[in-house]
């Protein structure tokens, strides 16, 4: 048993326990040092992931390959930035308690487990290890009714999704006779014709995972939870867990159910279509900017699923590039939103951004870059993310998806550009407080990535290409 | 012979206790009968040679679940007389549902097909020789599935942290035990030599002074920190 292969997970788990003890024992507030140690642990884990070998461990339950490496590094970086975003906000909102970074670390451990899952049991364990901390941090501002409501809603609907997924897994186990992905793939390889029970099982598993990435029609929780949860928690929700859940979805669909592609492809295509359309239209009327970002994230998941629906290397590469770019610009945009305070009080409507172009030109410029990029305007990174996905869809013959995708991104450009218009052309609603340094760093880093991707796309594209090849085997 | 006697004894007590769980009027008695039933079921498992299940039953069900029941029954003021209202009205529906379930059970048991290896497996459930079933279970749990076992542990840790984060509050004015303070108050205790055969009151032994009702509300308690929740 070569358990040393799982070194990143082991280091992160032990590091989390040590940090937890270090946070509990001192008789004074330990929020800041624990946050710093947690960011350090996440980055150390990312380095270990980069140095990780390939193969499987724990009797085939754990798998490490090029695909898992790409997704793990992305998820860990997103989690580290997500924690950085919370650093200042939580203290100002008086929820700066050391359990927050510890729960975030445990959620990150769950993400690593999900990305490396090679067994239905590990898949479920990873999802629960990711979800439980998320339910808690959604309700972290427990004296705020909306935050508690968000946590409870997320918990109830998440439990339902887990139940659906377990039911699907049990059906698959019943037909395949095994829980390991390799054995399931082998079992379905030998069968001629697919029984309806297997398809139902696969669809239920997809439904459970679609809930995690908030793809339509499993998106109902998203706007309420995103609005109610503290803003840095929303930022975290919209980035890292989606990376992990999409990675797991890709692995489940291509690995054990690769031979059932004609069956699940229709489901993914439908989810992608509905997500893009709903994300484009439902966000138009939103005044609360966190709700707007919730619908926006639903739309972005739709574009990412388009890459999955193509079911070949180009599509998977498009998905990986799209997720990397989405995470960067989304975290950047959330850094601007988290910095939105007026006289110390957090504000979160679109109208509160009015006049930012005159009162704080730098921040308004970064926000405009993120909004243009999300709308998919060249030469920003968001355009290329969409380009790779659309190209893959066209080459794969999914014309309908590509056309609807282009139309939906035109519609969604309306509400992204509305934010830019409010910032530059509306009457100032009063000065916003200065952004703290940590948020400024995140804005600048994400902004530079968004701007410079067009000049220097090769490293990311090459990494995504090799990751996609690793999963699809050529 | 002895085994047979023991089986019938434990089984009879188990059935009687189970009946009393349903029949007794006082809910606390019901829970106590439930604990008795659990113990007898554990004894039956022991007779059948399933020692791990027996111990698990005692530890988990008696140690945790039944105590939790007891807590709930004692803390919630449930009016059982009102719950029993309308028994005669709903009895026919209950009987119909019960009858359907009974018929289904009969159908399942009547058409049960045993797997061909089932008989052999039941005679010798452990393939490797010389292993007790606890050892065999441990081998599966801690060797084949150690990854999942550890993950389950992490999930339980999350549940614990989450419960503390969401509910634990630091209340002002709570009285915590302070060992250092207790040790340091040695000078307030005095030894007195008491003559034999005289009542305590007759000697007018001084009692320690009554504690103040609101001790040190404003002073920060140096021992109340560091357990999460700083509100």
Question: What do you see in this structure?
Answer:
The complex is a heterodimer of chains A (474) and B (231). By secondary structure, chain A is an all-alpha fold. Chain A folds into two domains: 1-251, no CATH class; 257-474, no CATH class. Chain A has helices at 7-24, 31-50, 66-92, 99-115, 120-138, 145-176, 181-190, 196-213, 221-228, 231-254, 261-282, 289-310, 313-338, 356-359, 361-375, 381-395, 399-425, 437-452, 458-472; strands at 55-57, 62-64, 341-342, 345-346. In chain A, the strands form two sheets. Chain A has a two-stranded antiparallel ribbon. Chain A has a two-stranded antiparallel ribbon with strand order 3-4. In chain A, helix 4 (99-115) runs antiparallel to helix 5 (120-138), helix 9 crosses helix 12 (289-310) and helix 11 (261-282) packs antiparallel against helix 12. With 231 residues, chain B is mainly alpha-helical. Among the domains of chain B are: 1-80, NADH-ubiquinone/plastoquinone oxidoreductase chain 6, subunit NuoJ (Four Helix Bundle (Hemerythrin (Met), subunit A)); 134-168. Chain B is 61% helix and 0% strand. Chain B is built from nine helices and no strands. Chain B has helices spanning 2-23, 27-47, 51-75, 80-83, 87-110, 118-123, 133-144, 146-167, 179-184. In chain B, helix 2 (27-47) packs antiparallel against helix 3 (51-75). Chain B starts with a helix and ends in a 47-residue tail after the last helix. Classes of the chains: A mainly alpha (474), B mainly alpha (231). Chains A and B meet through helix 1, helix 4 and helix 5 of A and helix 8 of B.
């Amino acid at each position: 048993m070569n358990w040393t292969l799982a070194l990143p997970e082991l280091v992160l788990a032990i590091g989390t326990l040590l940090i937890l003890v270090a946070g509990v024992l001192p008789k004074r507030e330990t929020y800041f040092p624990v946050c710093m140690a947690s960011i350090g642990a996440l980055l150390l884990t990312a380095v270990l992931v980069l140095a990780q070998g390939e193969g499987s461990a724990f009797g085939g339950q754990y798998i490490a390959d090029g695909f898992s490496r790409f997704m793990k590094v992305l998820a860990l970086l997103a989690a580290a930035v997500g924690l950085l975003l919370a650093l200042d906000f939580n203290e100002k909102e008086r929820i700066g308690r050391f359990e927050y970074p510890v729960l975030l670390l445990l959620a990150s451990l769950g993400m690593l487990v999900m990305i490396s899952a090679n067994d239905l049991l590990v898949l479920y364990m990873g999802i629960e290890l990711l979800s439980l901390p998320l339910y808690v941090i959604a309700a972290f501002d427990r004296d705020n009714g909306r935050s508690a409501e968000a946590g409870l809603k997320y918990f109830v609907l998440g439990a339902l999704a887990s139940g659906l997924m377990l039911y699907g897994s049990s059906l698959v186990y019943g037909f395949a006779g095994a829980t390991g992905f390799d054995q399931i793939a082998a079992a379905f390889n030998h069968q001629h014709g697919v029984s309806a029970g297997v398809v139902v099982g696969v669809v239920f598993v997809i439904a459970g995972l679609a809930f995690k990435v908030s793809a339509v029609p499993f998106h109902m929780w998203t706007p309420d939870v995103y609005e109610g949860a503290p803003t840095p928690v929303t930022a975290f929700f919209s980035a890292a867990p989606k990376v992990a859940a999409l990675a797991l979805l890709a692995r489940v669909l291509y690995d054990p159910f690769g031979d059932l592609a004609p069956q699940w492809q229709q489901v993914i295509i439908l989810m992608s279509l509905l997500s893009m359309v709903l994300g484009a239209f439902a966000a138009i009327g939103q005044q609360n900017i966190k709700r707007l970002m919730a619908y926006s994230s639903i739309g972005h998941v739709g574009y990412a699923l388009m890459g999955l629906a193509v079911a070949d290397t180009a599509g998977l590469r498009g998905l990986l590039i799209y997720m990397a770019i989405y995470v960067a610009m989304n975290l950047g945009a959330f850094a601007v939103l988290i910095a939105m305070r007026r006289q110390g009080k957090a504000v979160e409507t679109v109208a509160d951004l009015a006049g930012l172009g005159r009162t704080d030109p730098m921040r308004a410029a970064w926000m405009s870059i993120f909004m243009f990029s999300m709308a998919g305007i060249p030469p920003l990174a968001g355009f290329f993310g969409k380009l790779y996905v659309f190209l893959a869809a066209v080459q794969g013959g999914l014309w309908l998806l590509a056309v609807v995708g282009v139309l939906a991104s035109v519609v969604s450009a309306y509400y992204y550009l509305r934010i830019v218009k409010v910032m530059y052309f509306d009457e100032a609603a009063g000065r916003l407080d200065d952004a703290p340094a940590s948020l400024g760093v995140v804005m600048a880093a994400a902004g530079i990535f968004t701007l410079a991707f067009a000049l220097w796309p090769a490293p990311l594209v090459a990494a995504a290409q090799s990751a996609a090849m690793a999963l699809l085997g050529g | 012979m002895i085994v047979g006697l023991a089986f019938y004894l434990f089984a009879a007590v188990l059935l009687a206790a189970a009946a009393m769980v349903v029949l007794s009027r006082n809910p606390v008695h019901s829970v106590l009968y439930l604990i008795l039933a659990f113990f007898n079921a554990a004894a039956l498992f022991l007779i059948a040679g399933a020692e791990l299940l027996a111990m698990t039953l005692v530890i988990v069900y008696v140690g945790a679940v039944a105590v939790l029941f007891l807590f709930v029954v004692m803390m919630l003021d449930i009016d059982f007389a009102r719950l029993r209202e309308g028994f005669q009205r709903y009895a026919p529906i209950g009987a119909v549902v019960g009858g359907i379930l009974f018929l289904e059970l009969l159908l399942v048991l009547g058409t049960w097909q045993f797997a061909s290896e089932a008989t052999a497996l039941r005679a010798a459930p452990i393939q490797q020789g010389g292993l007790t079933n606890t050892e065999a279970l441990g081998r599966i749990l801690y060797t084949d599935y150690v990854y999942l076992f550890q993950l389950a542990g992490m999930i339980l840790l999350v549940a614990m942290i989450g419960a503390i984060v969401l509910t634990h509050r630091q209340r002002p004015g709570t009285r915590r035990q302070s060992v250092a303070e207790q040790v340091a108050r040695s000078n307030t205790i005095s030894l007195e030599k008491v003559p034999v055969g005289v009542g305590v009151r007759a000697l007018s032994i001084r009692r320690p002074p009554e504690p103040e009702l609101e001790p040190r509300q404003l002073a920060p308690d140096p021992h109340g920190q560091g357990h999460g929740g700083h509100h």
